């Protein structure tokens, strides 16, 4: 009888340790995927000054647009932002970048500038990587939340206190207008 109880206690202990370690692994995965978003955002932030300088020479009288991009970049690079505030700052930056890219359409010389075109392509690539990193982060958060809310993870999470819910990186409330393509 004592051997059966010892085996049951060992199985229960193994099960609890395995569940707790899974919670730790999922929590670490959310942190690592958030760090990957930061890497991709930094890459985008590093491209912006070059884009602004390239546009400045061709569209100097578009000062408000250029200053808005610089200000939005400054707000987005604030390291003290949480997930939701970071998402809002990045949405504002994306909107101002859209206006900057639209300048390229308004100024044929700027649009034809090879340096500006290369930076635009790099920015597009950065945006794609950011979208993927956000998707991966949100998937990691979803897996983590599922583990936190499922038995026995919900009991272990409550006991340890180190496991709390994470915020999703959500798109802002800005209207998502469809891109209009017109052929001349």
Automatic annotation (TrEMBL):
The keyword Membrane applies. It comes from the Bacteria. The keyword Transmembrane helix applies. Keywords: Membrane, Transmembrane, Transmembrane helix. InterPro entries: LemA-like_dom_sf, MamQ_LemA. It holds the Pfam family LemA. It is a single-pass membrane protein. It is found in: Membrane. Belongs to the LemA family. PANTHER family: PROTEIN LEMA. This is LemA family protein. It comes from Streptomyces mauvecolor.
């Amino acid at each position: 009888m004592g051997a059966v109880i010892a085996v049951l206690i060992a199985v229960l202990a193994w099960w609890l340790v395995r569940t707790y370690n899974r919670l730790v692994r999922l929590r670490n995965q959310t942190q690592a995927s958030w760090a990957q978003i930061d890497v991709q955002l930094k890459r985008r932030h590093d491209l912006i000054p070059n884009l602004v300088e390239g546009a400045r020479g061709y569209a100097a009288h578009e000062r408000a647009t250029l200053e808005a991009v610089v200000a939005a970049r400054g707000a987005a690079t604030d390291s003290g932002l949480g997930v939701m505030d970071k998402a809002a700052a990045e949405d504002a930056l994306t909107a101002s970048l859209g206006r900057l890219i639209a300048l390229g359409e308004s100024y044929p010389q700027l649009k034809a500038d090879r340096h500006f075109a290369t930076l635009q392509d790099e920015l597009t690539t950065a945006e794609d990587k950011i979208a993927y990193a956000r998707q991966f982060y949100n998937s990691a958060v979803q897996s983590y939340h599922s583990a936190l809310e499922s038995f026995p993870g919900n009991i272990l999470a409550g006991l340890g206190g180190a496991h709390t819910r994470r915020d999703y990186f959500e798109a802002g409330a800005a209207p998502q207008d469809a891109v209009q393509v017109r052929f001349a």
